Amino acid sequence: MDRTDFERASGARVRELCRSGQWTERTFGMALGYYQANLAIVPAAYAFEFMLFCQRNPKPCPILDIMDPGDPVPRRAAPTGDVRTDAPRYCVYRDGKLVEEPSSITHLWRDDHVAFLLGCSFSFDATLSDAGIDLPHMGGNKGRLSAFISNIACQPAGRFNGPMVVNMRPIPRRLLVKVIAISERYPLAHGGPVHIGDPSQIGVDLRKPDWGIYTPLAPDVEPVFWACGVTPQVVAMQSRIPEMITHSAAHMFVTDLRVADPSPLTPLG
Amino acid sequence: MDRTDFERASGARVRELCRSGQWTERTFGMALGYYQANLAIVPAAYAFEFMLFCQRNPKPCPILDIMDPGDPVPRRAAPTGDVRTDAPRYCVYRDGKLVEEPSSITHLWRDDHVAFLLGCSFSFDATLSDAGIDLPHMGGNKGRLSAFISNIACQPAGRFNGPMVVNMRPIPRRLLVKVIAISERYPLAHGGPVHIGDPSQIGVDLRKPDWGIYTPLAPDVEPVFWACGVTPQVVAMQSRIPEMITHSAAHMFVTDLRVADPSPLTPLG
To answer: The complex's ipTM?
Structure first.
């Protein structure tokens, strides 16, 4: 089973593969045209503060859907989905420490859990490719997007406070304006970049990614950084939130929302 | 003192007029180019559910800023502002009933109050005018935008449940596409219309506005309906929320956020 078999699959099909245990790998390059989502689950007692954190930090945390307390079904983003089983892999954080990386969290689910789906920049990768911008991490099974804990401070909200995680795409200089213009159109997938060029200005050493692998840059290429939906995980760790359950980095929850839809969150729009 | 004196005033200047008691009237046509905002204040115990209601109903309730519990200062939308004094007039709802319409709410403010600022369609009126679309309610002191309780149901969230309030602008048929295209660009000001034409389809009788006054339509004109930020007030009434404090309809809180800014909520964007 190869990810390229599922490039044109629906979001529902990828969720089904994950739910049945047939897919436990990263989801980049799959179900192109559908919004992929970061997942964050917190106890209801923290839900307002976490939602406020997302609202104040729309670049790393663009909200696609939020479920009622105890409801694992994303009724707007994926009505046939279940956040407990439909991501390929999960991370369980307790008191700021990663304690478990299961492929299902059904055994951990409680009535006071509130689940958030936050947009992921994988969502606009296909649009960038279609516009003639080659992305080394797309296609096949080898490419990896590298991600870094930057020195950009998020806006705090209650107990939630910490640095922004960014990911990097290497972009030829002549395509910079085009890449910015396209990604700015997708605020629900992190929107435009947060930094271009010299990584040290945002506290990043390209040779030491916190996630993914180091790939040297060609000479005519600039490193372009987007806000990343792994940010809540770093914030949960640094703020020692008693409990947060998330997807594992790059192992996304794929929704039914379409990237081409001009206003995917507003059925009336 | 006439509102036309303040067409080109800053948001801060209009807030100052309201705070000092010099302006207690409606704010349409003032501080053009700045986002005007609906205000809703709920006790912290209801804050998550109300925020969820806004997230699920982005057309009537586009979130501009949310304050920490007890903080009356919109630190992102209007850092020199104070939600207790800077709207011209307020409505106080208790158990679903309007009990008071003061011009300041300093005497009512508590440490557990959470204030929300939600975008208002007055924000794009100047952009529509600049594009050659005459709006009868703009300029002078006589124009009034009429608003109606429609039969469009909002997506419920916890205790918050009720119909969408809409307002109506009469638009010449030849300008419909232009008006839709322009307003769609401003999702933080309610975005594109929710209905065009036959008012009865959304349960509206143009001759009986719930706010504003009836103005007959010219023959070449269609009624165009936008979601309205008075929606939370009707929802608070219908759901018998124990306490909600809001601005009085059309008496808006004017922010420092600029309509021309492509991403006013993201300083990094």
So the answer is: 0.91
